[in-house]
């Protein structure tokens, strides 16, 4: 959260913007200020960006190395102590099976973060590519991709996921295979919303003079799209995708709640919440802690999305 | 406008066929025995399986099966579920409940979402803006099934303000809490979308022009800015109706509402393909109709988007 000294940010923003060869030429960088350089400058000043980033880093660290946060084995249980409330030894208490809630909350991060990450990347790749194609090419390409998107959009997320997951699931699926199934379902059903957003955004950007002049100057379609349309149209997609990251984590939990997403013995916040709901009137803390972790993770991504949006929006300057 | 409507209607046909085929294929052709669970715990007799396959044309190639099924659907016949009850009749009953729930949620969403978004977007960075941003953040980050269960526990069970579950006669009052829960996430997204749009539009040239020519503030905001900010909102709402009705499955589960969502979920658990395909097909029809209306409104709201 500390402000970096003068010269270094300038160098960073130049590298970010890639307008100058990062290998050298320090003095000229001061004069170059690209959109991305400006955005980074703005982002650094936004406390929400730092809070969100730190939270996300913590969750990612949890996902990569849960051992850093706890020495307790999440699979150690003590049935006699089941539902015990938080104590100095078990910070979050124990759940209905007598597992240590703190350890399970930490270990549960991995499944959620993986599902969110892969789903976000997958929907973005498919949605942005097709959105650019449809919005820029128009004509039959637009017609065809839009219809295909409508077909997939026609399946509501939860319903579609239920159908996809029940048809894919077997009796003894491995950890990664289950996660892949959930990701696949979310990408198949989630890309049309990114596609629509991107297409609409491209439709708004394309009539602009700068696109027309780039064309008039003889830029190839690829260059027009890459350097002029994409940077100006992707803003909403980045924001929504960052927010969706949280949404995917929440959707994973919802699917686990319905009994078709991740399931025991996999440790995930969704599975824990599902178990906690059953005991919510007698032992609310069993529901509270995993719900808190899940909500904080979702919150972090939404805050990050907001911060990025504000920074990248030239109109907010 | 007339030709556009007709063209749009014609474009709906491939989409409808695509979605229904996708569902049909996933439900009936992926691994798994369609007759599993039809005869209780034991496997079905060969005679039953043969009769079942014959009845639903499962011996035919997939496109033929699908074609025969759709021919029935077009005539309003969705087949029978495993107890021999007509799916169409059950659907009509359950759609009334889910439809009411979905429309109530959409209404709550539109009113609260737009109001909150306008309050926030008019003065970006102000108190209302931060309040709306923080409260929507909280709503979005809480999963629906947690919000639903907790509200049910406190408002329903402990304080007795709302009915805990919806049983027997479905009334406006008994659906109020479920509709609110169902709307909550979309509502927050809508408020944020409205805020962003409005804040962007308030700074645009035509608003400055409207102010410069001396229009009263209420007209500048109410007519010029709001109407232009409404375009993405209408789109969002239109598409959301289908999502709300399809996503009602969780809310319906929590509040024990006998709607389409629960019907589909039970159908999947029982491996009752006829029920699943029928109910989802009906949902898709509604979704497509909502989409069409949105697309037609698009041209009316934004003259810059030409329909031809």
TrEMBL record, chain A:
Cell location: Cell membrane
Membrane topology: Multi-pass membrane protein
A Pfam short name: BPD_transp_1
Region (Disordered): 1-34
Entry keywords, A to Z: Cell membrane, Membrane, Transmembrane, Transmembrane helix, Transport
Principal localisation: membrane
Protein known as: ABC transporter permease
UniProtKB/TrEMBL annotation, chain B:
Keywords, sorted A to Z: Cell membrane, Membrane, Transmembrane, Transmembrane helix, Transport
Annotated ranges, domain ABC transmembrane type-1: 95-298
InterPro entries assigned to the protein according to its UniProt record, in alphabetical order: BPD_transp_1_N, MetI-like, MetI-like_sf
Principal subcellular localization: membrane
Location in or out of the cell: Cell membrane
Transmembrane segments: 9-28, 101-122, 131-155, 170-191, 233-255, 275-301
UniProt-listed PROSITE patterns: ABC_TM1
Family affiliation: Belongs to the binding-protein-dependent transport system permease family.
Topology in the lipid bilayer: Multi-pass membrane protein
Name of the protein described by the UniProt record: ABC transporter permease
Highest taxon of source: Bacteria
